[in-house]
Predict the 3D structure of the following.
Amino acid sequence: MKNKKYLILAILLAGAVIRFYGISRGDPLNDEIFYGLRAIGPMDFDGAEAQTTPLEWLDPARVERSCGGANETQINARKLPESLEKKICAMKASGEYKGIPWWTKFSFHDHPPLVFWIQHVSVSLLGENNFGMRLPSALFGLASIYLLYLIARRLYGMNTALIAAAFLALTVNSIFVSRVGLQEVFVIFFMLLSSYFFLRALEKINWLFLSAGALGLALLAKYTAIILIPIFLAYLMLKKRDYFRSWQLWVSIFITVFILSPVIIYNIGLYRVAGHFDFQLSYMLGGKPEVWPVQPGKEIGSIANRLREYLPNLRDANSWLFLSITFLGFIGFFKSLFKTSKETFTRHFFLIISTVFLALFIIVIGPSYRFLSMFTPYFALTAALVIAWLFKKIPANYKKLSLIIFGLIIFFETAYSVNSQILYSPYLREHWAFSSLRYENYDWGYNELSDYLTAELRGKRPLVVFEPLYRFLEDKRDLAIIEGEKNGLEPVPVLIVYDANIHAAGQIWVLDRLHIYHAWPVISTETYFAFLQKEGYDFFNRAGFKKFYYISPVNVPLKPKAKLKELGPKFEEALKTKIEPTIIRNHSGSEAFRIYKFY
């Protein structure tokens, strides 16, 4: 038994290596950038046109323009629905409007705040980079392995616990969510933590307090953790009905609500201003606020479409071997239910109701890769039960052979995960040798673009800056200028123009971050043209810009040199001098960007 206890340390070490090694690899091109960018502030703004935020609605500069008799004519200005605009202007006229309200700091318009707060601490300590954004995910993913070990040991014993921990440590979906800055790994951790305390509470009721606290934190990370509530209620109704009459349960409910108080306060304030709750709660309640006409992530299709995508997405997000073993476990459950239904149901009750409720829940919210990752701990436990059962059935003289086979299974899972998440370019065929998750954080070249710009701008600060649309952005700009002057950085009159065909997420993390938090003048070609039309072709020269960068991804419809000519006299002059672009290549050597730099 003592030697087996050391095995969990080896499993955690393996899980740590595969989560932390090269964690900055892979471009941040999924929703992690929308969390990472706002975590820097922390500030509920990412420039999304279709999903404006209360910070934008209630910003003093915007309100003054919109309600002070002036038309909103500034380039890139975002208009609000007339009903919301009238309400805000009425607040201003009555004196009720006092600027951006205090409650906006308690949460975010589309998600609860916990993950943003955790990532804010990380990037504050480690810098605005992939490592700073993703490190908390790796830590929470590693802690989840140990929590599953504790849960499995409590339910099924040491052997099953070690096998389950090994699967969770090395299977690809668990590693993926641990190597990107998405919210799911935090949700999984707090769900497992709450479940562990809940199982302890079945023996000693006071553990409900800790379970409730962890549940509150899970919901404060993401609302999808709400699935724990029906799971726990179903368990208590069938196993511990007397708990409903206990004061401990009601105190526990209060603890959960208290931890959720930042979200409650935020939504009360939001409802008073806009007449609806935040983006996620509004969607859950069937509302479609006019201010958010586009609902990213909610285009999940009909129930039939979701069911059709369920198994293909499960296949894409896991190794075929891991899924095969897991499905063998499901077959075994059903077979046992026919033979010894009561015994099977009693022994596996928690795993059964958790998996069933989660399976139904994902039909409702859609079987995207990130949501399917919530299955992974339960799949790992199911697969572990299959392996542990086989170990018991194999004759004693074949024990070494069974250990070798299990070792080969773990080796395959490790190799599959490395091929899917760590190597820059995966080998062999998709699905058989690597997961489709590879393309969620593939190396397209945006990390290399970020490295190039970081090197170019190191030791410098902007000499010429833009006037922001919002007061809160002006405050960030002024802070960046003050910090640059304080640190003695060299002022340079730089303008960065990027082709509008660039990947939107890459643009936000690599380029918009420089503009929002460091005051660098960064604009798209569309905005550049808009300025030329409004202010004249020599506007940027008159504004004092002397050094220009033009960033063009290689997959744009027009050739970069042709586009340079379209951008105006300064760029056309650059063509005459035959300026050769700097080529940015991804780690595989493929050309990703061309950067034209001229004075």
The two ends are 71 Å apart (CA to CA). The first helix runs from residue 2 to 20.
